[in-house]
Design brief:
Pathway: Amino-acid biosynthesis; L-histidine biosynthesis; L-histidine from 5-phospho-alpha-D-ribose 1-diphosphate: step 6/9. The chain has helices at about 1-5, 15-20, 40-60, 75-85, 90-135, 145-155, 295-310, 325-345, 395-405, 420-440, and strands at about 10, 25-30, 140-145, 165-170, 180-190, 195-200, 205-210, 215-220, 240, 265-270, 275-280, 290, 310-320, 350-360, 360-370, 375-380, 385, 390, 410-415. It is about 35% helix and about 25% strand. Helix 8 (about 325-345) packs parallel to helix 9 (about 395-405).
């Protein structure tokens, strides 16, 4: 940039600022042409291109002098062209403006976004980073061949422009698939067997294979010749990165103070009887991915998420060969822990919620207070019995676990009803609706909704 302002001509590969400026007549571009991709052959091609330009263009032009005044007028003309075309575009004013607009201003907006409402987003992001770091070493990537990749291994020669499919099974004890960005890293191998100028292709989540294993799939199209892989795919060819909602937020515009709070929580719990991973997003759309091994409980939790507009993911393994008691209770505990973690200090939250749900002959009324003081009032006509594979009396155990670990005062009253399925479903729906109301944020509320100023 300083050189251009002083009329110095440039000789460079089309990289950095010269990639944008090389067509403006301020110098020459080194073009190595097609290479095999390894660093040695590329360096050799660049050197030959430089020698060619020096010998045939640059040196002759510089020494092409006027015999009267010994001035290289063609060279000077190029200098003037460089100053005229480059200086107005590539200058300190532009550099400072782009640094400010592309880096400093977004960084400041991000700082404001993370530190609103007492820095809750910063706290959540810090906890998430620690969570990812603590469990990153548990990740394991396993090769999995599709018909296409198996064919590619048997016949490893693929032409430029041809595509193939890659599958990978990612094993993780705690992390969820939405927390991972899985990518195919591919490129031409150099003489040392390392990928040269690699490219990244995204892989999409396909399926939960159980036991903390998740299937991802992606495709790649070969764009240059050379040896891409020795055989098959190895772990170095599949990358896995952590991701967090606040890191992907568009911060080009100032963010709202309350309505865009990142109120999520992740819980991992392992005992001698159960192993549970749970993620809750209070500001979701009702999306659910539930697998507890207890079909009726899965159904109740799915409708809980749906009617509360919560995004909820639960993967649970328990001693179901005994019964569903430990699994049901521990899932309730984890959901309570997630709620307590998601609402943090409860600032700006409505706190109270009530809802009544009719379900055919049954009626469930729920009143709750997310106040930090656990209490369960439970009055229903439920008696011992089963709904599918679920013992009806475990409904109370579930909400005991939820209440004790979320710090919620919860009153469940079913004044009448006969069908156990209807009664339990009405309860879960009513709790979801009441909790949705209680966890709403209201910009009129400063701090917590309490005359004491604390809960």
């Amino acid at each position: 940039m300083k050189a251009a302002a002083n009329g110095v001509l440039n000789l460079s590969i089309a990289d950095g600022w010269w990639a944008e400026a090389n067509h403006l007549g301020g110098g020459w571009t080194i073009n190595a042409g097609a290479t095999s991709g390894d660093s040695k052959s590329t360096d050799k091609a660049h050197a030959n291109a430089i020698y060619e330009l020096l010998e045939k263009e640059i040196v002759p032009l510089f020494y092409q002098r006027n015999p009267i005044d010994d001035v290289p007028y063609e060279w000077v003309a190029r200098m003037k062209t460089a100053m005229q075309n480059l200086a107005p575009i590539f200058n300190t004013k532009r550099m400072v403006a782009e640094y400010a607009e592309q880096l400093y201003f977004p960084a400041h907006r991000r700082w404001q976004h993370l530190n609103e409402s007492g820095g809750k987003r910063s706290i959540a992001l810090t906890r998430w980073k620690a969570h990812i770091q603590d469990h990153w070493g548990d990740l394991r990537i396993e090769e999995r061949h599709t018909d296409a990749t198996a064919s590619a291994i048997q016949n490893p020669e693929l032409g430029v422009g041809e595509s193939t499919t890659v599958q990978a099974v990612v094993h993780t004890d705690v992390l969820f698939p939405h927390e991972l960005t899985v990518q195919i890293y591919h490129g031409v191998l150099d003489e040392a067997g390392e990928i040269h100028d690699g490219s990244l292709n995204p892989m999409e989540y396909q399926a939960d294979l159980g036991g903390g294993a998740y299937l991802f799939e992606g495709s790649l199209t070969l764009k240059q010749t050379g040896l891409h892989v020795e055989s098959g795919y190895t772990e170095r060819n599949v990358k896995s990165l952590g991701k967090h909602p606040s890191k992907n937020t568009d911060l080009t515009e100032p963010q709202g103070t309350i309505k865009k709070m990142d109120r999520t929580a992740e819980i991992a719990r392992e005992t001698a009887e159960t192993r549970i991973r749970l993620r809750l997003d209070l500001d979701g759309t009702g999306a659910a991915n539930i697998n507890t091994g207890v079909g009726f409980l899965d159904h109740m939790l799915e409708l809980f998420a749906k009617h509360g507009f919560f995004d909820l993911e639960i993967q649970a393994e328990g001693d179901l060969h005994v019964d569903a008691h430990h699994t049901t209770e521990d899932v309730g505990i984890c959901l309570g822990q997630a709620l307590q973690k998601a609402v943090l200090d409860k600032a700006g939250m409505q706190r109270f919620g009530s809802f009544t749900i009719p379900m055919y002959e049954s009626l469930a009324k729920v009143d709750l207070d997310v106040c930090g003081r656990p209490y369960l009032y439970y009055e229903t006509p439920l008696v011992t019995g089963k709904v599918g594979d679920f013992d009806s009396e475990l409904t109370e155990e579930f909400f005991h676990g939820f209440v004790n670990h979320s710090g919620t005062t919860l009153h469940i009253n079913v004044p009448y009803g006969t069908n156990q399925h209807h009664i339990i479903e009405a309860i879960f729906k009513a709790v979801a609706k009441a909790l949705h109301i209680a966890t709403r944020l209201d910009e009129r509320i400063t701090g917590v909704l309490s005359t004491k100023g604390s809960l």
